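Exercise 7b. Backbone tokens:
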């Protein structure tokens, strides 16, 4: 009997699938849809409870290349945290909360993950241990906070804090991406348009100019020379760009020294560096505030914070702070000694330690620097727009002028 109960979870886990059904409702109207369930029998029983008479039920075929599987993003995890916190605060039992959340999710992959977690909890496992079986989506910080909530008997409050933390963290990431995405996209479009002009348009004008029988302006000759070079070597340029992108991606995935050097270099960039710096301080304060408020000891909390900073300079600084704090040094003194934390953050931490409201003060620091990042991103976007438009005008306009300059000179002679 013991062996039978052990093998059942292993067999039921892979059997959960999506079924496509057709039938009629109580009024005789034809209805159809999709339902996730363990078996076809469960689907028919569920539909029967809803007053639907199922005519056809079949398993939904999988996509040939697997492209129908939507990727689970951090935003999906943040949404899951918020919805689960809301359900539990409303008094809905945990297992039933999973069902409601799964039904409301647009991402089928995320819904499947939620149902897998539900099965683990139904089998008697704690929520934290169920989440730990999916480390790709739930990091050690997430799981430790849930475990603290379960141990203290305040899981709904902890889930609410986790939801706020995930929402704030993802909002901060989106702001950084917003600052980078716009100029990069515009520059890529400009590069593509310039390449098309040089390879396709300029040669047409070059054939026209050959019939003039006169010496072309120096600017036009320069552009024609660039066009001839691009026509001959464009595949090498394209190959170098692709190879560079591939090498950088591989280096980021496999080389820790490369990532560390990249982190240090980003902080030294003129405008972007300041945004990354403020975002890192915001992440530090937000993570430490959330973990400390959850009752996690400060030294253990700093261990989680080190990985959440997202930058090697601050990861090393937080590890140094952790060693100092474990030996009895106050947090604000240790932060000041590293020389990488702003004085305002250090002073707020000092006030928090003296007043016994460290988590509240850290939350204020996080809010302040998140607002600073928001303002900096808006300022960068508004500043970049005229600069990019001027750059596009010079590049594209310069090519057009170079092509029409001989025609203008010919018209002046006539």
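Sequence design result:
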């Amino acid at each position: 009997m013991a062996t039978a109960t052990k093998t059942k979870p292993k067999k039921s886990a892979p059997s959960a699938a999506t079924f496509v059904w057709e039938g009629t409702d109580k009024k005789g109207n034809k209805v159809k849809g999709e339902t996730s369930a363990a078996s076809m029998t469960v689907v028919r029983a569920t539909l029967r409870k809803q007053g639907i008479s199922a005519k056809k039920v079949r398993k939904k075929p999988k996509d040939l290349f697997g492209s129908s599987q939507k990727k689970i993003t951090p935003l999906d995890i943040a949404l899951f945290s918020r919805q689960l916190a809301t359900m539990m605060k409303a008094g809905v039992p945990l297992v039933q909360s999973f069902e409601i959340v799964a039904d409301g999710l647009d991402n089928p992959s995320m819904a499947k993950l939620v149902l897998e977690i539900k099965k683990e909890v139904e089998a008697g496992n704690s929520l934290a241990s169920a989440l730990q079986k999916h480390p790709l989506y739930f990091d050690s910080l997430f799981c430790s906070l849930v475990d603290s909530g379960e141990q203290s008997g305040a899981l709904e409050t902890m889930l609410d804090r986790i939801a706020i933390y995930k929402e704030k963290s993802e909002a901060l990431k989106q702001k950084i991406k917003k600052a980078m995405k716009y100029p990069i996209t515009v520059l890529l479009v400009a590069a593509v348009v310039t390449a098309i002009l040089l390879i396709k348009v300029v040669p047409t004008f070059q054939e026209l100019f050959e019939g003039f029988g006169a010496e072309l302006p120096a600017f036009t000759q320069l552009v024609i020379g660039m066009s001839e070079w691009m026509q001959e070597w464009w595949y090498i340029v394209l190959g170098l760009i692709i190879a560079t992108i591939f090498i950088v991606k591989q280096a980021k995935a496999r080389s820790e020294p490369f990532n560390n050097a990249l982190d240090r270099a980003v902080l030294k960039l003129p405008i972007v560096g300041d945004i990354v710096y403020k975002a890192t301080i915001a992440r530090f304060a937000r993570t430490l505030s959330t973990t400390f408020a959850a009752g996690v000891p400060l030294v253990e909390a700093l261990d989680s914070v080190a990985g959440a900073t997202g930058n090697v300079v601050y990861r090393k600084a937080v590890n140094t702070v952790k060693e100092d704090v474990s030996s009895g040094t106050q947090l604000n003194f240790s932060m000041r000694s590293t020389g990488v934390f702003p004085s305002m953050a250090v002073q707020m931490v000092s006030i928090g330690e003296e007043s016994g409201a460290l988590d509240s003060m850290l939350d204020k620091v996080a809010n302040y620097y998140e607002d600073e990042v928001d303002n900096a991103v808006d300022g960068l976007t508004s500043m970049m727009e005229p600069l990019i438009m001027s750059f596009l005008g010079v590049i594209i306009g310069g090519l057009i002028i170079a092509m029409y300059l001989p025609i203008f000179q010919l018209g002046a002679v006539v």
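Instructor comment: The CA atoms of residues 78 and 166 lie 5 Å apart. The chain has a mean pLDDT of 81.
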